[in-house]
Amino acid sequence: MDIFLLEAIINGILLGGVLALLALGLNLIFGVIDVVWICYAELVMCGMYMIFWLHGFFGWPILIASFAAILGVAGLGMLLHLLVISPILGSAPINQLLATGGMLFFLQSLATLLFGTDFRNIGLRLPIIEFGDIFISYSRLLAFGAALIGAVALYLFLSRTYLGIAMRAIAQDREVMGLMGVDQRRIYLITSAVGGALAGLAACLLVLQYDVHPFIGLSFGPITFMICVLGGLGNMIGGFVAAFVMSQIIAIGGYYFSIEISYVLAFVFFIVLMFIRPQGLLAR
Amino acid sequence: MLSLRSVSAGYGSFRALFDVSLEVAPGEAIGVVGPNGAGKSTLMRVISGMLRSFSGELAFEGRSLTHLPAYRIVEAGIAHVPEHRRLFSKLTVEENLRIGAFLPQARRNYAERSEWVYALFPRLLERRRQLAGTLSGGEQQMVAIGRALMSKPKMLLMDEPSAGLAPLVVNQVFNLVRRIREEGFTVLIVEQNLQQVLEVVDRAYLLEVGRIRLSGSAAELKTNPMIQQAYMGL
Amino acid sequence: MMHEANRRIAPLILAAFGLAVVPFVTSDYVLHIAIQILLWGFVYTAWSLMGKFGLVSLGHGAFLGIGAYVSPLLWNYAGLTPWLGIPIGVLMAVLLALIIGYPCFRLRVIGHYFALVTLALSQVALLTIVAARDITGGSLGMTPRAVGHSWYALQFPEKPYFYAIALVVWVFGIGVWHFVDLGTGRAALDAIAEDEGAAAAIGINVMREKLRVTVASAALTAFGGALLSQYFMYVNPDTLSGIGVSLQIVFAAIAGGMYSAFGPTAGGLFTIALPEILRISMGTNFVGAANTIYGALLVIFIIFMPRGIIGLVERRLAAPPARI
Questions:
Q1: CA distance A62 to A79
Q2: Domain B2-233 carries which CATH code?
Q3: Which of A265, C241, C257, C292 suits a disulfide with A109, CB 3.0-4.6 Å?
Q4: Neighboring chain A residues of B90 at a CB cutoff of 8 Å
């Protein structure tokens, strides 16, 4: 096999890790609260800017900056829920979509206003590792590893802790939760924080590899949506699998054509799959 | 222990309960009977906080519970076993029980508590890793009751425990209610199955079209012709 | 009865007269603004055809972009007159709407799923345009070859001509809106919006109704996009395709009020006037200020005024409901 193709495939798997993390976050929010955060990628963008300013400008060590960003985006998630989502929880889904869509617009424009459209890089040069003839960047490997750890942590949280079980339960029967002594609003808030934290983690991983600019959300937001729809909205495992499938298409498409074409291919694949397997990749 | 005074409730412009008053003393088992559509489930939902009353007062152990959200009422010590069980079907039996112990005070004694519940329902111990949705009707009812018991309640509300169950299973369920009484719990049962419930409770109220028509000891009510009328007439 | 009819028609005739007279009494600058409001109002109205029935598309940028690019491309590379180029663009948009709509509607992809699919669609459209940068000029945009005043090329340096075209098109759009609103399709679509299962159970061909309104919406949007690129004599993927403009469309229709005929146009007034005012007062220092305000307002509108500005006005003017 062509060594560069192998490299592309491996990079695809590594990319898949981060996309899976994003899909997990989006699915968590949807599964528990029944809302799609259309501005999810923009929350990641905020996290990336946070790291850029904390580390690149104020000189904080990268680990501290990353940790702060995770907390910061978790906070943003909670604010988003409190200010935007909870007032409209009862109303038609269209309103929720438009509200988070509006936030996407708002965050992108605010970032443009505050930081300009320049591409910013945190200037962290991590080494490139050689495996035989293949060159894999250390930052990509790190991102993949961290994403997997994040996913495992989420799994343990959801299956072992009271809060985690409550979150899974709420997704199945909202009304009865009160009878368990659970304050729904608190669960929603915590879920929003966890979803935000996952976005923050993704931001830490992405900022190592890519420049940040106000529209960076567009580079992975729509892909994440496609992944979640493919895997079944709210289906954590489905999203996880779909992330790797899509990332392979992007990687291989990018290898043979260009990055834009690879996204188009991913979309075409997505539409075709919708034609032939509407229930998503993982049908019950 | 529990007292309702002139409670009225409903859904939107539809009134389901009119001026309902009742009392439950500690250690008692009280039944609320009545035909379909009488408002029995509405009554349960008002007590457990799932539904906000229009007017009237609700007090438990001297504390007012009027208009409190459901999770506060559970904290106060009332656990509700909902109509049709309402289990989390995609969670295991064990997880269902665990969620019942969500309250901080219940979490502390989780191990001890779950042991006790499993002792009460040995079948559940075998099936504890099974998904709740895959159990039989009777087993699901056991999980529902067990889940409610996990929160260390002082009083148990049971909403139509025999609904949708085969007659043999219904017998088992009412035997369970007797056992729970023996353990010292105060119970308020809402039931359509007149025969069975009057065997198990001390006193009962007859609810018809949202109003209390009759109340008395189980013995009295068994022979009261009005009850038969209520069930047949409407 | 005559009084009723007269009372309704009179203000409309007055307004129509006022609109027709505009080019003769105002400057080019005002006309420039008016044309934009009319054309964008048309586009927003087209979106609201779907939006008011719960089919929230976050991807109309795709249709707009197709319409905006196809006829200039055909003009520049094949010398094809926009009179043919525009219909071809509209047809392509219709095709895309069918390709996306059919699986979505057949498989009951509604609500969240539909919004996400359309969102991805608009982004993909933008990426396709950028990827084909050799012929489309990519992110730098492209201009149709200018030939001065020409009906054949549909190019008019003098604004009043385009104003007339824009006015006619806009009125057409309102007409289509009313047609959909009053036609039998409307009852069907309302039923579908309320409860799809029930609608299907009483024999409504859910798929056909949805596809029809989607195709109409896509076609009109593409048409509007074609006229916009024809008027500005410049087309750029960021202004006429992609998520940004898709959300702008949604915002305008919602803010103006998509449940009324003139609502989307009111939204157009807002989306054109706001950046102009900002530009005049703050210069170009605050790039992105207008959009930031839109985004914030969209969110605020959704929370507090889901029926838009016009909806609010309508409610104030409406007589109090009769007491039963």
A1: 25
A2: 3.40.50.300
A3: C292
A4: 168, 172
Which of A36, A94, A109 lies closest to C54 in CB terms?
A94
B155-159 vs B186-191, strand pairing mode: parallel
pLDDT for the residue C10:
66
Look at the pTM and tell me if it is higher than 0.90. Answer: no
B189 against A4, higher pLDDT: B189
| Core vs surface per residue A28-64: b (16+ CB within 10 A) or e | bbbbbbbbbbbbbbbbbbbbbbbbbbbbbeeebebee
Q: A1 falls in which pLDDT band (50, 70, 90)?
A: low
State what percent of residues in chain A have pLDDT above 70. 97
As a whole number, mean pLDDT of residues A84-104 equals 84
Q: Does B59 touch chain A (CB under 8 A)?
A: no
Residue from the list A95, A109, A223 with its beta carbon closest to the beta carbon of C306 = A95
Architecture of the A3-276 domain: Orthogonal Bundle (1.10)
What percent of chain B is helix, strand and coil (3-state, nearest 5)? 40, 25, 30
Helix (H) / strand (E) containing C218: helix C206-232
Amino acid at C289: A
CA angle A146, A148, A151 (to 5 degrees): 110
| Distance from the A176 Cα atom to the nearest Cα atom in chain B, whole angstroms | 7
Kind plus residue range of the DSSP H or E element containing A207: helix A184-207
The number of beta carbons lying within 10 Å of the beta carbon of residue C81 is 16
Mean pLDDT, residues A96-117:
87
Find out whether B71 and A178 touch, Cβ atoms under 8 Å.
Answer: yes
Mutation site, C303, C304, C305, interface A, largest A CB count within 10 A: C303
What pLDDT score does A51 carry? 92
Dihedral-angle region of residue A130 (phi above 0 means left; psi in -120 to 50 means alpha; beta otherwise): beta
- Select the residue from C50, C249, C299 to test the A interface by mutation, using most A Cβ atoms within 10 A: C299
Predicted pLDDT at A22: 94
Please identify among residues 165-194 of chain B the ones whose CB lies closer than 8 Å to any CB of chain A: none
Tens digit of each residue's pLDDT (9 = 90 or more) over C213-254: 899 999 999 999 999 998 888 888 888 888 888 988 988 888
The first and second tokens of residue A176, run together, are: 């009865």
Q: What are phi and psi of A208, to 5 degrees?
A: -70, -30
**Three-state DSSP class for B33?**
strand
Q: Which of A87, A92, A260 sits opposite C303 (nearest CB)?
A: A87
Mean pLDDT across A122-150: 82
Asked if A180 lies within 8 A of B102 by C-beta distance, the reply is yes
Torsion of CA A19, A24, A29, A32, to 10 degrees: 160
ipTM of the complex: 0.83
Size of chain C, expressed as the number of residues it contains: 324
Residue C166 in this model has a pLDDT that exceeds 70:
yes
Contact B79 A162 (CB under 8 A): no
